[in-house]
Design goal:
Largest sheet: 2 strands, parallel
Oligomer: single chain
Number of strands: 4
Structural class: mainly alpha
Number of domains: 1
CATH topology: Rossmann fold
CATH architecture: 3-Layer(aba) Sandwich
Strand order of the largest sheet: 1-2
Distance between the termini: 15 Å
Number of helices: 6
């Protein structure tokens, strides 16, 4: 696990009773930003996805219901990737852990770590 990940996030991920999901949206974001040459995203998205699955993470697909839920979100964050992740968490009743203080302003199931 990355040393850049906050300790509290690592603890949540490693907690045996927690089922951990990753969104196809996150893989899509990595693919887009890798293709654009962003240094922080210099990873093959297929390798990332494969490793997440191999390590027991559950893949959360993007559904139309998630996309529709974006319309009801307050305009706190402009990034479409982050907004759809928030919508997915709310629709699915899942906690979303984030280091982004702006994303955390959505409250509810969104947890700043």
């Amino acid at each position: 696990m990355s040393g850049r990940l906050p300790r509290v996030a690592r603890d949540l991920i490693e907690e045996i009773d927690n089922m951990i999901f990753f969104s196809t949206v996150s893989i899509w974001e990595v693919a887009v930003k890798t293709a654009r040459g962003y240094r922080d995203f210099a990873i093959d998205p297929s390798v990332l996805r494969e490793n997440l699955l191999k390590n027991g993470y559950q893949e959360l697909s993007l559904l139309g219901e998630h996309a529709v839920a974006v319309v009801n979100l307050p305009h706190i964050h402009k990034d479409p990737f982050d907004r759809i992740l928030v919508a997915q968490a709310l629709v699915e009743g899942l906690s979303l852990i984030t280091v982004d203080k702006t994303v955390a302003k959505y409250g509810g199931l969104i947890r700043l770590v």
